[in-house]
Amino acid sequence: MYAMTAPAGKVYLNILKELDQIIYADNLMPGDKLPSERELAERLQAGRSSVREALRALELLDLIETRKGEGTFIQRAGGHRLAEILASFFLRDTRAQRDVTETRAIIEIEAVRLACQRITDDQLEKLGEIIRESRETWYGGNLPVEQDYLFHKTLVESCHNRLMLNIWRPLVEYSKVALRESLARTGRTENSIDEHAGILEAIRKKDEEHAVKMLKKHLENSRF
Hints:
This protein is mostly helical. The chain folds into two domains: about 1-80, Winged helix-like DNA-binding domain superfamily/Winged helix DNA-binding domain (Arc Repressor Mutant, subunit A, Orthogonal Bundle); about 90-220, GntR ligand-binding domain-like (Four Helix Bundle (Hemerythrin (Met), subunit A), Up-down Bundle), CATH 1.20.120. The chain is about 70% helix and about 5% strand. It is built from twelve helices and two strands. A two-stranded antiparallel sheet has the order 1-2. α2 packs antiparallel against α5 (about 80-90) and α3 (about 35-45) crosses α4 (about 50-60). It is elongated, with a radius of gyration of 19 Å.
């Protein structure tokens, strides 16, 4: 059993990895119900408290949802596999984090270049609305975590290259907890919203080089 053969931290990560395998083996999709806590403990040969801790972490990341009296379900997340999100969640070492950061930057920079040529009026309006909602959320005393994520997602969507979006999404979806910590830094939220506005303005003007420059600065300032 993990609890007898591995340190606490390793037990926790092992359980998360095994959960990923169960999801894949059982062909579970967004909206499907996970096995019960007891069944998971038996299948994983792990203590129920360790399983409960792993499930709690996934729930905090909005990857699963516990419904009282019904069980635990995989969250619907735009049709992409939870396994893909979990794969990114396991990238804990410094080198892996660097690779994720570099890959995300490459995709977003090229997406912004293409967006300057391909973005639609509806997408320009959507980006503006997201910025307005970000300010309202911030002025209301909350961190605009979801709006921040949606801004970058819409940027990538605006390049109209579905493969780029499908590569980008699992790289970023898992990091919302870290994003919240980044936005919580003193002065960071206001600066981040202003940077988003600058990126949007450059795209409106189809100023590709300035849009890229603004995005690079934003990504550098937003590192967790």
